[in-house]
Amino acid sequence: MRYLHRGLWFLASLALLVGLIWVWQLLADARILPRAFFPGPDRTWRALSRGFASGTLVADTLTTLRRLALGWALASLLGVGLGALVGTSKWAQAWIAPIFEVLRPLPASAIAPVLLLFLGLTDSMILTLIAFGALWPMLLTTVHGFSNIHPRRKEVARSLGMGRGAFIAKIALPGALPDIMGGLRLGLTVALILVVVGEMITVQGGLGARILLAARAFNAAEIFAGVALLGVIGLVTNALLGLVETRALRWQRR
Amino acid sequence: MLETTGIDATENAAEDVLHVDAASVRYGATTILDQVDLTLEKGEFVCVIGPSGSGKTTFLRLLAGLVAPVQGRVLFRGTEHRAPSREIAIVFQDYANALLPWRDAEGNVSLALEAAGVPRSERSDRIHTLLRTVGLAGSEKKFPSEMSGGMQQRLQIARCLAQDPDVLLMDEPFGALDAMTRQKLQDELLGIVRESNVTAFFVTHDLEEAIYLSDRIIALEPNPGRVSQIFDVDLPKPRNQLTTREMPEFLRLRRELFDFIERFEQ
User: Quick check: ipTM above 0.90?
Assistant: First the structure.
């Protein structure tokens, strides 16, 4: 019964999506906007299949995915690691946390030119940019998760004679995982934005660079194709992370 | 003063497990425990009762090494002890917070073995034995949220036994359970303590529970918390939920303890 219910909702949302694409086609066919600026789904689809056939779109997509994955992984390691440090150490809380408060409000896009100066038009610049921006949600949720550990669990750890490392790995991290997973998802959204920003600045391949170049050539269908592909990447990566989350937190749903 | 107790401690080293020597605990300006003395002998079952605010839980935390005395000292097997030790296990009242909800029954027991550095190959057998001891055979893969309160408290006791402790400290462990489960767990606990020869220190506000379980009852009085009276419980073992509770000695002690608590109710 529940599965039937969920199936129906899925069909309904799919129907809505198909309906919206159909309206998009109608608007494009009505020529309210010039065809050169506003291609319909048909011309966007053609640009997509042309790009895939020539292989350039596949290469750009893979480049973007690789940068997204590496940048996000880097941000996750830094965010969760620093979060664990600040969350468990009074010393780190006193000395490191204030630095975060200064850095955090800085818009990542404003950091981009600074990174460009130091790292040039390189992958490292893009990865650093992603790491800087996507770090914060993971850091803050990890600190929050760690600070919410029930004092009883700390007493259990002490009475079992657990060291600091074992406490973090076996009690603090799993306990903070629901919070951290939320941070990882937020971080992924930020990482997707910043990979595109980074690629538009460096223009060293990738979907961001492809969209920028298409815009300079007034190739609207190509722009729409790139944007649609980024949308799909966002949707699929988020769904994958959702699956991981469901699996990692299955004890919560019992 | 220090010298005499030093001699006392060595003389009785074979029998005494925990020895509290004129220990006081303060939080800020408030004295929670004032000059308490206590000696726990091996295999003994001691219950602590007292009106609220008499420092029952603080007494337990003092023995656990979770709080340090500002005066006096706590000796564990003859040496001073100010931090928690694996040989002293604690069963908390709030089992939901003490257990790890992301680990199943096996995993929760395993935590104690992992912390003690027991090799992986030996853990499985010991976990199954311990779960069987507390009556949780067949629930190995269950998560705490899938268990009743009684089962969760059994699981916490299993984890404490996995520490292979000399002393089992229990802070109102059955306080949140219904009457039937409570009586069943009392009998199982007595069996476990008898077989493992562990020394039990049990805080409760249920006077009949205290008589039923104890060899000795420590009665605390409040403001500041201190030992007021000690009752020896001369009831035959093994205890029985029906016959023990009907014995004249049981009823006499019940009356005495109620009179004792009554004094602080006004």
Answer: no
